[in-house]
Amino acid sequence: MRIPHDLLPAGVVIAVERSDDADLDVRAAAVGIEVYAADLHPKRQREFLAGRLAARTALQQMQAHTLAVGRDGNAPIWPAGFCGSISHGADLAAAIAAPSPSWRSLGLDIEARIGTNRMRALRFALSDDEMRICEASADPWAWTRYWSAKEAVFKCCAALGHRPTLQSLQPAWRDTGHGTVDVVISNTALRIDLVGGVADEAMWMIASMRDATADLPDETARPAVAGFEIVSPLQTGAENAQGFAQLGANGTAAA
Protein backbone atom coordinates (compact mmCIF):
# COMPACT_ATOMS: atom_id res chain seq x y z
CA MET A 1 0.00 0.00 0.00
CA ARG A 2 1.53 3.31 -1.09
CA ILE A 3 0.54 6.31 1.00
CA PRO A 4 0.66 9.44 -1.19
CA HIS A 5 2.65 11.68 1.14
CA ASP A 6 3.75 13.71 -1.87
CA LEU A 7 0.22 15.13 -2.18
CA LEU A 8 0.13 16.61 1.31
CA PRO A 9 0.17 20.39 1.79
CA ALA A 10 2.80 21.65 4.22
CA GLY A 11 1.94 20.83 7.82
CA VAL A 12 -0.74 18.25 6.96
CA VAL A 13 -0.28 14.63 8.06
CA ILE A 14 -1.97 11.47 6.82
CA ALA A 15 -2.67 8.02 8.25
CA VAL A 16 -4.15 5.05 6.40
CA GLU A 17 -5.83 1.82 7.52
CA ARG A 18 -7.11 -1.15 5.54
CA SER A 19 -10.79 -1.71 6.27
CA ASP A 20 -10.34 -5.45 5.67
CA ASP A 21 -7.61 -5.97 8.27
CA ALA A 22 -8.35 -9.08 10.32
CA ASP A 23 -7.57 -7.41 13.68
CA LEU A 24 -9.40 -4.15 12.97
CA ASP A 25 -12.18 -4.78 15.53
CA VAL A 26 -9.70 -5.73 18.24
CA ARG A 27 -7.45 -2.72 17.70
CA ALA A 28 -10.43 -0.34 17.65
CA ALA A 29 -11.89 -1.79 20.83
CA ALA A 30 -8.52 -1.51 22.58
CA VAL A 31 -8.61 2.28 22.23
CA GLY A 32 -12.34 2.67 22.89
CA ILE A 33 -13.56 3.14 19.31
CA GLU A 34 -17.02 1.70 18.72
CA VAL A 35 -19.50 1.91 15.85
CA TYR A 36 -22.24 4.46 16.45
CA ALA A 37 -25.14 2.23 15.35
CA ALA A 38 -25.49 -1.52 15.77
CA ASP A 39 -27.58 -1.86 12.62
CA LEU A 40 -24.89 -0.52 10.30
CA HIS A 41 -23.97 -2.82 7.43
CA PRO A 42 -20.85 -4.86 8.39
CA LYS A 43 -18.83 -3.24 5.60
CA ARG A 44 -19.82 0.22 6.81
CA GLN A 45 -18.95 -0.73 10.39
CA ARG A 46 -15.43 -1.70 9.34
CA GLU A 47 -15.02 1.47 7.31
CA PHE A 48 -16.05 3.55 10.30
CA LEU A 49 -13.64 1.77 12.66
CA ALA A 50 -10.78 2.01 10.17
CA GLY A 51 -11.45 5.70 9.59
CA ARG A 52 -11.46 6.50 13.29
CA LEU A 53 -8.25 4.50 13.83
CA ALA A 54 -6.62 6.43 10.99
CA ALA A 55 -7.81 9.72 12.51
CA ARG A 56 -6.38 8.73 15.87
CA THR A 57 -3.01 7.94 14.29
CA ALA A 58 -3.01 11.25 12.40
CA LEU A 59 -3.67 13.15 15.63
CA GLN A 60 -0.87 11.19 17.34
CA GLN A 61 1.47 12.38 14.60
CA MET A 62 0.41 15.94 15.42
CA GLN A 63 1.08 15.26 19.13
CA ALA A 64 -2.50 16.14 20.00
CA HIS A 65 -3.51 15.73 23.65
CA THR A 66 -6.97 14.47 22.67
CA LEU A 67 -7.01 11.60 20.14
CA ALA A 68 -10.75 10.91 19.97
CA VAL A 69 -12.75 12.25 17.01
CA GLY A 70 -16.39 12.92 17.79
CA ARG A 71 -19.39 12.85 15.49
CA ASP A 72 -22.19 15.27 14.67
CA GLY A 73 -24.57 13.51 12.33
CA ASN A 74 -22.44 12.51 9.37
CA ALA A 75 -19.60 14.88 10.20
CA PRO A 76 -16.50 14.08 12.28
CA ILE A 77 -15.74 16.56 15.08
CA TRP A 78 -12.02 17.13 15.55
CA PRO A 79 -10.39 18.08 18.86
CA ALA A 80 -9.92 21.77 19.58
CA GLY A 81 -6.88 23.15 17.79
CA PHE A 82 -7.04 20.73 14.86
CA CYS A 83 -8.95 20.19 11.65
CA GLY A 84 -9.06 17.15 9.45
CA SER A 85 -11.00 14.86 7.18
CA ILE A 86 -11.73 11.14 6.81
CA SER A 87 -12.45 9.15 3.68
CA HIS A 88 -13.10 5.54 2.70
CA GLY A 89 -12.63 3.87 -0.65
CA ALA A 90 -10.93 0.98 -2.44
CA ASP A 91 -10.87 -1.03 0.86
CA LEU A 92 -8.93 1.80 2.51
CA ALA A 93 -9.74 4.36 5.16
CA ALA A 94 -7.57 7.44 5.49
CA ALA A 95 -7.48 10.56 7.61
CA ILE A 96 -5.63 13.83 7.24
CA ALA A 97 -5.12 16.35 10.03
CA ALA A 98 -3.45 19.70 10.60
CA PRO A 99 -3.30 22.41 13.27
CA SER A 100 -6.30 24.68 12.86
CA PRO A 101 -4.39 27.92 13.45
CA SER A 102 -2.64 27.23 10.14
CA TRP A 103 -5.45 25.51 8.26
CA ARG A 104 -9.07 26.53 8.33
CA SER A 105 -10.51 23.37 6.81
CA LEU A 106 -9.48 20.16 5.03
CA GLY A 107 -11.26 17.67 2.81
CA LEU A 108 -10.08 14.22 1.71
CA ASP A 109 -11.58 11.81 -0.80
CA ILE A 110 -10.45 8.37 -1.96
CA GLU A 111 -12.19 6.82 -4.94
CA ALA A 112 -11.73 3.67 -6.95
CA ARG A 113 -11.91 4.43 -10.66
CA ILE A 114 -15.50 5.08 -11.73
CA GLY A 115 -16.67 2.55 -14.28
CA THR A 116 -18.87 3.16 -17.30
CA ASN A 117 -21.92 1.85 -15.41
CA ARG A 118 -21.72 4.78 -12.96
CA MET A 119 -20.78 7.64 -15.25
CA ARG A 120 -24.28 8.80 -16.16
CA ALA A 121 -25.29 8.65 -12.49
CA LEU A 122 -22.92 11.57 -11.84
CA ARG A 123 -25.25 14.01 -13.59
CA PHE A 124 -26.53 15.27 -10.23
CA ALA A 125 -22.96 16.29 -9.30
CA LEU A 126 -21.42 17.44 -12.60
CA SER A 127 -22.53 20.39 -14.67
CA ASP A 128 -23.55 19.87 -18.29
CA ASP A 129 -20.20 21.25 -19.44
CA GLU A 130 -18.32 18.95 -17.09
CA MET A 131 -20.32 15.97 -18.33
CA ARG A 132 -19.42 16.84 -21.92
CA ILE A 133 -15.75 17.26 -21.05
CA CYS A 134 -15.60 13.87 -19.33
CA GLU A 135 -17.49 12.16 -22.14
CA ALA A 136 -15.02 13.53 -24.70
CA SER A 137 -11.90 12.82 -22.64
CA ALA A 138 -9.59 9.88 -23.35
CA ASP A 139 -8.34 10.05 -19.75
CA PRO A 140 -9.77 7.01 -17.88
CA TRP A 141 -9.60 8.97 -14.61
CA ALA A 142 -11.44 12.10 -15.83
CA TRP A 143 -14.82 11.17 -14.31
CA THR A 144 -13.24 10.05 -11.05
CA ARG A 145 -11.10 13.19 -10.79
CA TYR A 146 -14.05 15.54 -11.14
CA TRP A 147 -16.19 13.56 -8.70
CA SER A 148 -13.39 13.21 -6.15
CA ALA A 149 -12.53 16.90 -6.33
CA LYS A 150 -16.12 17.89 -5.63
CA GLU A 151 -16.39 15.45 -2.72
CA ALA A 152 -13.17 16.76 -1.14
CA VAL A 153 -14.23 20.40 -1.56
CA PHE A 154 -17.70 19.64 -0.20
CA LYS A 155 -16.12 18.24 2.97
CA CYS A 156 -13.99 21.39 3.28
CA CYS A 157 -17.12 23.53 3.12
CA ALA A 158 -19.23 21.26 5.33
CA ALA A 159 -16.64 21.48 8.11
CA LEU A 160 -17.42 25.22 8.18
CA GLY A 161 -21.16 24.61 8.35
CA HIS A 162 -21.97 25.10 4.65
CA ARG A 163 -23.35 22.44 2.34
CA PRO A 164 -23.22 23.61 -1.29
CA THR A 165 -24.59 21.56 -4.14
CA LEU A 166 -21.92 19.50 -5.85
CA GLN A 167 -22.83 21.00 -9.21
CA SER A 168 -22.01 24.45 -7.88
CA LEU A 169 -18.44 23.41 -7.05
CA GLN A 170 -16.54 23.83 -10.31
CA PRO A 171 -12.80 23.12 -10.25
CA ALA A 172 -10.44 25.30 -12.26
CA TRP A 173 -7.54 22.99 -13.16
CA ARG A 174 -3.93 24.02 -13.68
CA ASP A 175 -3.06 20.46 -14.67
CA THR A 176 -4.41 16.98 -14.00
CA GLY A 177 -3.20 17.06 -10.40
CA HIS A 178 -3.69 20.65 -9.23
CA GLY A 179 -6.58 23.06 -9.19
CA THR A 180 -8.67 25.49 -7.18
CA VAL A 181 -12.31 26.04 -6.36
CA ASP A 182 -13.52 29.47 -5.23
CA VAL A 183 -16.52 29.68 -2.92
CA VAL A 184 -18.32 32.40 -1.02
CA ILE A 185 -19.10 31.69 2.62
CA SER A 186 -20.76 34.34 4.79
CA ASN A 187 -20.13 36.95 2.11
CA THR A 188 -16.40 36.17 2.13
CA ALA A 189 -14.58 34.82 -0.92
CA LEU A 190 -12.47 31.77 -0.11
CA ARG A 191 -10.11 29.81 -2.29
CA ILE A 192 -9.82 26.05 -1.82
CA ASP A 193 -6.71 24.37 -3.20
CA LEU A 194 -6.91 20.93 -4.78
CA VAL A 195 -4.15 18.39 -5.23
CA GLY A 196 -4.77 14.85 -6.40
CA GLY A 197 -3.18 11.79 -7.91
CA VAL A 198 -3.56 8.07 -8.46
CA ALA A 199 -1.93 5.56 -6.11
CA ASP A 200 -2.68 1.84 -5.91
CA GLU A 201 -5.51 2.13 -8.45
CA ALA A 202 -7.35 4.76 -6.42
CA MET A 203 -7.76 8.51 -6.83
CA TRP A 204 -6.61 10.50 -3.80
CA MET A 205 -7.84 14.10 -3.64
CA ILE A 206 -7.03 16.65 -0.95
CA ALA A 207 -8.83 19.98 -0.61
CA SER A 208 -7.35 22.56 1.74
CA MET A 209 -8.50 25.99 2.82
CA ARG A 210 -6.05 28.31 4.49
CA ASP A 211 -6.89 32.02 4.46
CA ALA A 212 -9.93 34.11 3.57
CA THR A 213 -9.42 36.92 1.07
CA ALA A 214 -11.75 39.82 0.56
CA ASP A 215 -10.92 40.10 -3.14
CA LEU A 216 -9.71 37.27 -5.35
CA PRO A 217 -6.96 38.34 -7.76
CA ASP A 218 -7.44 38.07 -11.48
CA GLU A 219 -5.90 34.88 -12.76
CA THR A 220 -3.55 34.88 -15.72
CA ALA A 221 -4.57 32.85 -18.76
CA ARG A 222 -3.71 29.16 -18.59
CA PRO A 223 -3.48 26.65 -21.40
CA ALA A 224 -6.30 24.14 -21.59
CA VAL A 225 -5.57 20.69 -20.19
CA ALA A 226 -6.95 17.72 -22.08
CA GLY A 227 -10.03 16.40 -20.31
CA PHE A 228 -10.42 19.36 -17.98
CA GLU A 229 -12.32 22.60 -18.05
CA ILE A 230 -10.32 25.73 -17.35
CA VAL A 231 -12.73 28.13 -15.63
CA SER A 232 -12.13 31.57 -14.19
CA PRO A 233 -12.12 31.38 -10.37
CA LEU A 234 -14.11 34.60 -10.25
CA GLN A 235 -16.81 32.96 -12.35
CA THR A 236 -16.91 29.81 -10.23
CA GLY A 237 -17.00 31.89 -7.04
CA ALA A 238 -20.15 33.66 -8.19
CA GLU A 239 -21.79 30.39 -9.20
CA ASN A 240 -20.93 28.78 -5.87
CA ALA A 241 -22.44 31.74 -4.04
CA GLN A 242 -25.73 30.93 -5.78
CA GLY A 243 -25.28 27.27 -4.89
CA PHE A 244 -25.18 28.04 -1.17
CA ALA A 245 -28.85 29.02 -1.43
CA GLN A 246 -29.60 25.35 -2.06
CA LEU A 247 -28.25 23.97 1.21
CA GLY A 248 -28.36 20.29 1.97
CA ALA A 249 -29.20 19.08 -1.55
CA ASN A 250 -26.32 16.62 -1.57
CA GLY A 251 -24.23 14.92 1.08
CA THR A 252 -21.49 12.42 1.72
CA ALA A 253 -21.36 9.20 3.67
CA ALA A 254 -20.78 9.39 7.38
CA ALA A 255 -17.13 9.22 8.37
Oligomer: single chain
* Shape summary: globular
Distance between the termini: 21 Å
By secondary-structure content and strand pairing, the structural class works out as: alpha+beta
Characterization of the model:
- Helix 1 (24-30) crosses helix 2.
- The longest helix has 20 residues, at 42-61.
- By secondary structure, the chain is α+β, with helices and mostly antiparallel strands.
- The protein is globular, with a radius of gyration of 18 Å.
- The protein contains six helices and ten strands, in the order βααβββββαααββββα.
Architecture blueprint of SSEs:
Layout: E1 13-18, H1 24-30, H2 42-61, E2 70-72, E3 75-77, E4 82-89, E5 92-99, E6 105-112, H3 116-119, H4 128-136, H5 142-158, E7 172-175, E8 178-185, E9 188-199, E10 202-213, H6 233-243
Antiparallel strand pairs: 1-5, 2-3, 4-5, 6-10, 7-8, 8-9, 9-10
Helix pairs in contact: 1-2
Short description:
Helices cover 27% and strands 28% of the residues.
Keywords:
single chain, 255 residues, alpha+beta, 2 domains, 5-stranded antiparallel β-sheet, 3-stranded antiparallel β-sheet, 6 helices, disordered C terminus
